[in-house]
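Most newcomers find our protein records easier to grasp once they have seen one. Nothing more is needed to start thinking about how sequence determines fold. Here is such a record, shown just as it appears in the course material:
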Amino acid sequence: MKKNSTKNNRINGEVRRSLSEIIRDVKDPRVDPFCSVTEVRVAPDLKTCKVFVSVLGDEEKEKETLEGLKSAEGFIRRELAARVNLRNTPEITFIMDDSIRYGMEMSKKIDEVMGKASERETDSDQS
């Protein structure tokens, strides 16, 4: 199976949707309620799965959420096997996705630069 085949994309989407629901059901208090699954990459042989999660909050919440998800991995994998009919239920690896935070930081920096540029324009117009 090719890496970006239609079948693999469909499996990634189905696993992502199921994992989003399963993570909401995790009772571990370390898992943040604002944890969301941003991307899932299931290997073509269905043996492994990388799950990228994002958490609204600081780095401490991210760290706690990852610990909670790793400790609940058995429950999550068992639920995934029950909900998604795959030949193999993949081993799950949780990875923190920093792309949302990075995008927010870049947006803030752009706003700061644009604010300074508009201040210079108004200062030069008044002279």
